[in-house]
Design goal:
about 35% helix
């Protein structure tokens, strides 16, 4: 079984914010794979199904960003999912808006959702898709920026990044993540 996790914050006030781009990818995959997010357990909402012969679990942790690892660990333990069968999708301030970057390991780089995931998994070695949201202008407080919405100019670029990230996840169901990295990190 493959576990695809999108990081974000629950609640309408956080919908469509920069920090919730991971949730948007899960919504895209839910639609693409015809896997409804209809289960609520393990501190998250999720859906399970088959896509092209592969068992897939799509997860949105509902713990708020800073505690995302709690939900991920609970789901992995319950369904006995190995770390190599996990991919985590999240926003990244260090990449230009709309740029995606796939990695198999690395430090959290200041991202609290990834810090929590590393702490709960006990390793920095897990597949990730980072989606660039760019840095705020000087003088803009980072928490305000990540909890803000995309500008009209950013919206089409971010929509494309969501689609590319979903495409990378779909490709991962048939190919090793290293190969997917080579295909998508162009």
């Amino acid at each position: 079984m493959k576990l695809i996790v999108g990081l974000g914050n629950p609640g309408k006030q956080y919908a469509k914010t920069r920090h919730n781009i991971g949730f948007e990818v899960i919504d895209e995959l839910s639609s693409r794979f015809n896997i409804p997010l209809d289960q609520s357990k393990h501190k998250g909402i999720y859906g399970m199904g088959l896509y092209k012969g592969e068992k897939v679990l799509l997860l949105k942790p509902l713990t708020y960003m800073n505690l995302s690892g709690e939900s991920i660990r609970a789901v992995m333990d319950y369904y006995q999912i190995e770390t190599e069968d996990l991919v985590v999708i999240y926003d990244d301030l260090d990449l230009p808006a709309g740029k995606i970057r796939l990695r198999q390991k690395g430090s959290p780089g200041g991202h609290n959702g990834i810090k929590s995931t590393v702490a709960h998994l006990g390793t920095q070695q897990f597949n990730r898709i980072r989606i660039g949201i760019d840095r705020p202008e000087p003088g803009v407080f980072v928490p305000d920026y990540v909890l803000g919405t995309f500008t009209k100019q950013e919206q089409p670029v971010m929509l494309e990044a969501v689609k590319q990230s979903a495409e990378a996840c779909e490709t991962w169901l048939a190919k090793p993540f290293l190969q997917v990295m080579n295909d998508f990190n162009q």
